[in-house]
């Protein structure tokens, strides 16, 4: 734990809310990070007891600063520097949607036919000529 001043973007990167520091900085500039109810600039120093509301693509965070950290550490260490006060519905809702909509894979039995399906469709469309007519 350090007593030096740490920028908001560096702190959010260090506690693993964002993958890169530039993503944290962009989120601050885009108004996705609120510090004690007001939009936070990336260069603002973080203090003990500060409360953040953060909107990321993955989920919404509501955290309270319990320790200042300037270097990125393992997740098991990083969680010691904040308290996650995020409501339960904000933690789970995006994860359920992401599993269905954002994986990039199609759902089973939907979309393009398999090779076997295509052959049976081709056979049906061509017709045998021996049908019961």
Automatic annotation (TrEMBL):
Coiled coil spans: none
SUPFAM superfamilies: Alpha-L RNA-binding motif
Presence of the UniProt keyword RNA-binding in the record: yes
Any single biological process term in GO: cellular response to heat
Biased composition (Basic residues): 103-118
InterPro entries noted in UniProt: HSP15, S4_RNA-bd, S4_RNA-bd_sf
Pfam family, one: S4
Keywords: DNA-binding, RNA-binding
Gene3D superfamilies to which the protein is assigned, alphabetical: RNA-binding S4 domain
Stretch list, region Disordered: 102-133
MF GO annotations: DNA binding; ribosomal large subunit binding; single-stranded RNA binding
Entry keyword annotation includes RNA-binding: yes
Record-stated family: Belongs to the HSP15 family.
Protein name: RNA-binding S4 domain-containing protein
């Amino acid at each position: 734990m350090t007593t030096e001043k740490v920028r908001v973007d560096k702190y959010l990167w260090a506690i693993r809310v964002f993958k890169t520091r530039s993503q944290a900085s962009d989120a601050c500039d885009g108004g996705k990070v609120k510090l004690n109810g007001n939009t936070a600039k990336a260069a603002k120093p973080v203090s003990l007891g500060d409360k953040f509301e953060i909107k990321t693509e993955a989920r919404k965070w509501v955290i309270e600063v319990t320790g200042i950290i300037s270097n990125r550490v393992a997740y098991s260490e990083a969680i010691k520097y904040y308290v996650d006060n995020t409501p339960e519905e904000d933690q789970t809702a995006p994860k359920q949607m992401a599993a269905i909509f954002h994986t990039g894979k199609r759902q089973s039995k939907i979309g393009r036919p398999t090779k076997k399906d295509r052959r049976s469709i081709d056979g049906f469309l061509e017709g045998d000529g021996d049908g019961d007519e």
